Amino acid sequence: MSSSLAGTIGQDLLNVPMGDMIREMAFAIADAQIRLDENSIEVAEMMGGLKTIYDDNGNVTFEDSRVFFGRERIPLSTAADIATNSNDEELKAAVAKELDENHLSNLNKVGTGDSATYALTDPGVNPTISIPTRLSMLELGFTPTFYQFVDTIIEVRISISYTEEQSTEINVTSDSKTVSKYNSFSWGRHGVSYGRSRTVTTTQVNAAYANKYNYSAEGSSLLRTKLTPIPPPAILEERIRQQMEILSQEASEA
Q1: Where are the alpha helices (DSSP H) in the chain?
Q2: What is the pLDDT of residue 175?
Q3: Is the distance from CB of 149 to CB of 225 less than 8 angstroms?
Q4: What is the SS3 assignment for 190?
Q5: Which of 159, 185, 178, 223 is nearest to 12 (CA)?
C-alpha cells in the first residue's frame, strides 16, 4: 500500500465526528427524558381524579377523571345532597337514578332532570342507601409509571478496503516462411550442378499491460439504549396513602 493511500485511510478514520455524535446523543436522550417525565406527570394528574384541560385561549378547566368502581352505603341525606348539589354531573345523575328507582317514602323530589332537588321529609329518619362509588385510579391502587434511559451505547463501524491489481501479458507468435530463391550453377563436362535455397523466419510480439486500482470506504453507526421503568418514590406512595385516609375520614364524618 502506498504512503498516500495509507494517509487517506488514516484521515478517513480521523474524520469520524465522534465528539459531535456523543454530544448529539446526550442532548437527544436528555430531551426524550424530559418528555417522558412530562407524560408521566400528566398521567399521575389524571390518576389523581382531576385532569387539567387547556382551551385555545389558554384557559384552564378541570375534568373529573375518576371511574365508577363498586358501591358504598351512605346516609340518605348525603345521597340527596349529592343528587342535588354535586358538580360531578355523572355522579349526580347516577345517585339521582338510584334515588328514583328506590321509591323512598322519606324522600321528597322537586322538579325533573338536572334541575331536580331532593330533600328528606323527616330529618329524624335517615337510613342508608347503596350508591355507585366513583374512585380515582390512585385510590384503586394504580401508580403512574416513570421511565429512565440506562445503558446507552454508541458503536461506530468503519470498513475501508484497498485493492490493487497489476498484470502483464506478452504474446509471442512465430511465423516461418520459405523464400523461393534458388541459385544454381554448373561446372564440368559431366553436367554437375549445385543449388541453394533460403528459409526466412519472422516472429511477432504482442504486448498487453493492465493495471487495476480499487478503493472503497464504508461506515455505519449504531446507537443502542435501554428504557427501564423505575418504581414510584416512597414519598409519593406515602402521600397517596395520607390522601386516601383523609378522604375516608371525611366520608365517614359526612
Answers
A1: 3-14, 18-47, 76-85, 89-102, 234-253
A2: 59
A3: yes
A4: coil
A5: 159
Report DSSP letters for 16-62, one per residue.
Answer: S-HHHHHHHHHHHHHHHHHHHHHHHHHHHHHHTTEEEEE-TT--EEE
Classify 197 as helix, strand or coil. Answer: strand
pLDDT digits (tens, 9 = 90+) for 90-138: 888 888 888 888 877 788 888 887 788 888 888 888 888 888 888 888 8
Percent of the chain residues past pLDDT 90, beyond the cut: 2
**78-107 burial, b for 16+ CB within 10 Å, e for fewer?**
bbbbbbbeeeeeebbebbbebbeeeebeeb
pLDDT at 35: 92
Q: How far apart are CA 228 and CA 149, in angstroms?
A: 6
Structure letter (DSSP) for residue 143: -
Task: Say how far apart CA 237 and CA 230 lie, in whole Å.
Answer: 14
Q: What is the pLDDT of residues 171-189, one digit of tens each?
A: 656 555 555 555 555 555 5
Res 196: pLDDT:
57
Rounded distance, CA 70 to CA 132, Å? Answer: 6
Cα 127 from Cα 129, distance rounded (Å): 7
